[in-house]
Each structure stands twice: as structure tokens, then as C-alpha cells.
Specification:
By secondary structure, the chain is mainly α. Helix content is 74%, strand content 0%.
Length: 135
């Protein structure tokens, strides 16, 4: 069998990006993919090679994303030491700065907190008066 006959037998025509699926299956988990050319300087070849490269990179990035993110998350947690940084920074806040940090979280329900505090204060005061008068 000549080289030309072998190429004709195994070659698969491409008509768009979805046709690259079979090519990507053949590439599999290869560390290196060499995209050579038989013709030099043709615009069509360079366009197709760029499209194959983009598709290959995109597929491999998406495929490896979960594992990569695990490493990044571990690195970020260690490198930035977020928990200890937050604790240290919050300990450095003055009482008014700390209140200013928390107040927006409770501001919408602040009137409820004030009303409940007033009611509890009134009830405890009345209980105290009752105990003092009856003992």
C-alpha cells in the first residue's frame, strides 16, 4: 500500500468544528499534539489549524478545570490565609468601626431589635419590682 492510499483510507473529511470530535478522540490524553502541514502558506490550512488548536485547548481546559480548581483553592486558602487575616483585622477595629461593619446587616430589622429589647427590659424590671414587693 502506498502512502497516498493509506492516507485516503484513514483520512476523514472536515466540514466544521463538530467534525473535530473524531480528531480529539484520536488525540486522547496525549501530552503533545503536533499539527503539521503538507502545503506551505495556505490560508485555509492556517485557519483550520487555529480552529483545531482553539477547540483542543478549550476542551482540555474544561476537562481539567475541577482538578485545577482544587489546587488553586488550596493554594489561595494557604497563601491568603483568609480566616486568620479576617480575625486579625476585625480585632484591630475600634468599637465604632465594628458597629459600622455589622450595622448594615441588621439595619433593616433594627426597630424589631429595639422593640424586643425594650419589651424584655420592661418585663425584667416589672419582675424585679414584683419580687422585691412580695419577699
Amino acid at each position: 500500500m502506498t502512502d497516498a492510499e493509506l492516507v485516503r483510507e484513514i483520512a476523514e473529511p472536515l466540514s466544521g468544528l463538530n467534525d473535530y470530535d473524531r480528531l480529539l478522540e484520536l488525540i486522547g490524553d496525549a501530552r503533545f499534539v503536533l499539527l503539521g502541514e503538507a502545503t506551505h502558506g495556505t490560508h485555509e490550512f492556517y485557519s483550520e489549524r487555529a480552529a483545531i488548536t482553539k477547540r483542543l485547548i478549550a476542551d482540555k481546559v474544561v476537562e481539567r478545570m475541577p482538578d485545577t480548581l482544587k489546587h488553586i483553592e488550596r493554594y489561595a486558602a494557604d497563601a491568603m490565609d483568609i480566616r486568620n487575616t479576617l480575625v486579625a483585622k476585625m480585632q484591630q477595629l475600634t468599637p465604632s468601626q465594628f458597629e459600622g461593619l455589622l450595622r448594615p446587616a441588621f439595619q433593616q430589622d433594627e426597630w424589631i431589635l429595639i422593640a424586643v429589647g425594650a419589651a424584655l427590659g420592661f418585663l425584667v424590671g416589672e419582675l424585679q419590682v414584683f419580687i422585691m414587693l412580695h419577699h
